[in-house]
Amino acid sequence: MNEIEIRMLYHSHVYGGDTIKIGFIGPGKVGVSLGRYFTHKGIELSGFYGKDDLNTIDAANITKSKFYNNIQDIIKDSDILFITTPDDIISIIDIELSKFDLNNKSICHTSGSLKSNVLCNAKHSGAMIYSLHPIFAFSSKETKLKELEDIYFSIEGDILEDSSIISVLKLIGNKYFVRKAEDSSTYHLASVFVSNLALSLLDIGTSYLKKLGLDDEEALNALKPLIKGNIDSIYAKGFVNSLTGPIARGDITTIEKHISVLEDKDKDLYKILSFNLLKLVALRDKNNADITENIEECFYSMENKSQIENVLSNSKKHLEIYKFLGGVN
């Protein structure tokens, strides 16, 4: 029996049928939203600890839990501690926690980019450690609880099927998956692409409507049905079957007009995203399995232009678009 199994056996004996109490270090948007959600799901909170007393008291009041101004006390009163602070503070908190006996405690941080081993000092002091990341953008402490019903969690760390943190995930009923520590950066990149970078892309798109005289709100509202309709279509039909627009149609005249009005700073981005759309077009129009196997490799190895041209050879208009975009600097 290894060290983790011994600890978990002891955890099971200690917890038994008793209620597991969860505490939060960090009274911000993530901590308060998760605290409210856990309470909604019948999980008991010990309370909140944080550097700013007013924010911490507010977090405790919102979640009807206890305010702690002493880290030792929240450790004593909690079975699981969630660290819901900015990433660069987590290692500092880890050192603070490790000054105390953490046997029979589980320590989780909610960063998607950091591995669980950022809590290595806590582990040496007896804790089970985890990176438990909710795949959601928390923009407020008042996150609607209904929205949290559908979010996924990803988890990495000292995981066994009967660990207390897995029990919590099963109790709240949200779907979750286990990731490897070495995959943390790749995992977080997926979230950044569809959240932060998508936000940036929407900002760029609305900026072209603002050139016509619309303000921020008008531009975003005008594009909202298009944005929402596209997302709904992707979920209903998938990426390939949701293709629309000039790339999908092979409309090079429209693309030439786009290039003529694009700001220089946006041209490379337009080219990269259009190449990815051409990859989806090739998948849509594939005629045999041999081509399908090469599509991903061809489009992400842009130096091999002959292979890409071969993939697109069944559509002269899409091949023409590819060659035209290849000339964008």
TrEMBL record:
Gene3D superfamilies for the chain: NAD(P)-binding Rossmann-like Domain (3.40.50.720), ProC-like, C-terminal domain (1.10.1040.20)
Pfam family, one: DUF2520
Domain Putative oxidoreductase/dehydrogenase Rossmann-like as annotated: residue spans: 20-134
Residues in DUF2520 domain copies: 151-274
SUPFAM superfamilies, A to Z: 6-phosphogluconate dehydrogenase C-terminal domain-like (SSF48179), NAD(P)-binding Rossmann-fold domains (SSF51735)
InterPro entries linked: 6-PGluconate_DH-like_C_sf, DUF2520, NAD(P)-bd_dom_sf, OxRdtase/DH_put_Rossmann_dom, TM1727-like_C_sf
Coiled-coil positions: none
Official protein name in the record: DUF2520 domain-containing protein
Originating organism: Clostridium beijerinckii
Top-level taxonomy: Bacteria, Bacillati, Bacillota, Clostridia, Eubacteriales
